[in-house]
Amino acid sequence: MFRNRHKAYRFYLIFEFIILFAGLPTACEFGFFPIYPIFMLWLFAAVSALVLILDPQSNLSRLWRVNRWKDLTAVIVRFILAAVLLGAYVVVFEPDLLLKFPRYHPYPWAMVMILYPLLSALPQGITHRVFLSHRYGRIFKGGSMILVSAAAFAYMHIVFQNPLALLLTFAGRILFAKTYSDTRSLMISMIEHALYGNYIFTIGLGKYLYLGAAGYGLSGLP
Fold first, then answer.
1. Is 36 helix (H, G, I), strand (E, B) or coil?
2. What residue spans define the domains of the chain?
3. What's the pTM value of the predicted model, to 2 decimals?
């Protein structure tokens, strides 16, 4: 009886995961919700945070700790290497985009640099790192959790309607998920997410992560 109940709960979690991390982005993409995706993200983050708060097994206080500064050093070293590669890509293949945002739109760029960590990196960290890992850790283990998390994170960006957005976000999510898996710190993974997001907007690749270009008429955040 216990085994059957356990198996039924696993199937329920898988179904719930598909609905939340595949169904919601698909519904936004096809316009089933009369709400901008960034607002949907915040609603999802609020519900996820409430579930975590009400769960006695979750320990939210440790999410904001930086227990080992060497973890943050590793994040910065990886970011520098990735920044060189991404910058080289823009210089070689899309030089017209290089620093176009800060050069021609300095005030909106400055606002993105300030607000991106709070309006995008934070809620996505809650939904696609903390909530996903805590809620579905019993069905996805180790490396499979990182891959599933990366796929869910990338698929959320289907609303940007271009393959480069999916590629960038999938690669980024692999890094963010690995960082969270190693440190169990939302703070460190959020810092990493914010570094990449702000850098991508600065060098010009934010063009591919902009909801206005996808027909929403609203600046989106990757």
1. coil
2. 2-214
3. 0.85
